[in-house]
Amino acid sequence: MTNKATISMQEDARQAVRQAAKAEPRTLAELNALISAAEPFVPGATRAVLGEGPIGAAIALVGEQPGHQEDLQGRPFVGPAGLLLDRALLEAGIERKRSYVTNAVKHFKFEERGKRRLHKKPSAGEVRRYRWWLKKELEFVRPRVVVALGATAVLALSGKAQPISRFRGPHDFDGQAGYITVHPSYLLRLPGQEAREIGFREFVADLKRASALAKASAEPRRSSR
User: Fold this and answer.
1) Residue 143: beta bridge partners?
2) Where are the domains positioned within the chain?
3) pTM given for the model
4) Given phi > 0 = left and psi -120 to 50 = alpha, else beta, which region is 16?
5) What is the chain's Cα-based Rg?
6) Residue 189: CB partners within 8 Å, gap ≥ 6?
7) Non-local CB neighbours of 184 within 8 Å, separated by 6+ positions
């Protein structure tokens, strides 16, 4: 049952998007300033964790949402999943500093258990509230390929749920070249060392394929004559 607090948060989100669209941000910095000033659209959140990386990056990596460490440090993918992502990028021959890294949801949704802040998966409605921000962000960054890390990123980029098991691989996100793969946190949850190693190798292979797509899109087309 929807309560008054939920309705208020939904209206705050809609109002923030309307105000941001009316402001017509002309740069990524202006967009980031707007979302940093907006109230969080998920319960428990504190501050916005913005994307990082260069404009014009060949690859943009989109995750689910910031975690505990990301919220503390104010940077995306710096916790356990981020360390695993860094390792995978290194093995795939992709420089993180030359890639753009962000999340579908910009705030850490959590619930407190004693002194611990436990991650809570954002709802489909919460993901959609952030979708305008993500799309504008990627418009400014202009990556050649967008890599969706997990189901939440797929929902945010495509506007609909699409299971990773079925759609893993190259994908078109409304005209944007993309690639669907798992979120690195999924690999951390796999039972057993062997399963984690296999999953990691498959993840690295996905990143290599995404990188190859980005390189191919940058190559000039040869004349047929």
Assistant:
1) none
2) 4-217
3) 0.93
4) alpha
5) 18
6) none
7) 81, 82, 84, 85, 88, 149, 203
199 or 6, greater pLDDT? 199
Residues 180/155, Cβ–Cβ less than 8 Å: no
Q: Which two tokens stand for residue 1?
A: 């049952």
**What's the mean pLDDT in 181-206?**
97
pLDDT tens per residue across span 125-159 = 999 999 999 999 999 999 999 999 999 999 999 99
Q: Tell me the C-alpha distance between 117 and 68, whole Å.
A: 7
The candidate with the shortest Cα–Cα distance to 106, out of 157, 38, 184, 182, is 38
Q: What is the mean predicted confidence (pLDDT) over 53-80? A: 96
* 49 Cβ contact list (under 8 Å, min separation 6): 66, 70, 71, 74, 75, 76, 103, 106, 107, 108
Distances (CA, A) of 204 to 29, 90, 91, 99, 197: 31, 9, 7, 15, 11
Query: Which DSSP symbol is given to 93?
Result: T
Residue 55 in tokens:
């404009």
Backbone angles phi, psi at 112, to 5 degrees: -90, 135
Q: Which fold has domain 4-217?
A: Uracil-DNA Glycosylase, subunit E (3.40.470)
| The pairing of beta strand 100-103 with beta strand 169-173 | unpaired
